[in-house]
Amino acid sequence: MKKNFYFLKNRFRKFYPVIIDIETTGLNHTIHSILEIAVITLTMNNNGFLKIKNIIHFHIKPFTESYLTKKALIFNKIDPFNILRQPIQEKQALQYIFDIIKKEIKHHECSKSVIVAHNATFDHKFIIQISQRNKIKHPFHPFVIFDTATLSGLILGQTVLSKACQSIGIKFNNKKAHSAIYDAKKTAYLFCKLSNNYKKYNVKNNITNI
What we know:
Nucleotidyltransferase, domain 5, 21% strand, alpha/beta, 40% helix
């Protein structure tokens, strides 16, 4: 087995995967706001398997002139004006999140981060848009994403997050779904398990390129 098998930088071509889940006021990344964001960074253990490292979670204030879609708020059960949310400005949240991701990129000797999400195109568009709106340089690849819906569809025959988790042995409570922190954790467990199972298969079959 090659020594680089145990380093995260060699697992994804020096791309550092970061799990993200967001809850928004609608589906259009140009006019709708992020209301909640959860970000999970990863690391590798001594055997070269992925595991969760940092979990970051914020409630976000809608940006000025953004649109709030009633259907979306009913779906995610978020009241943007509830003071108990203790939301912060999106720029403040981004700066904190990006600082941690950049430290992890440097620590793991990677070149850039890649967003990992379930139906990742949605999250990616919002993150790029919010970065541009606040004039903050983001650490993510401009178009490469790791979509766990696609990976699960290919490997497990399931594209819905709850069903994909259950099919691979991860417990999922549908009553807690559509919370950024809950869905991000389940997406992280799913991505790690898919990746680690693939690595176990390669170890078993003496394939040493990852």
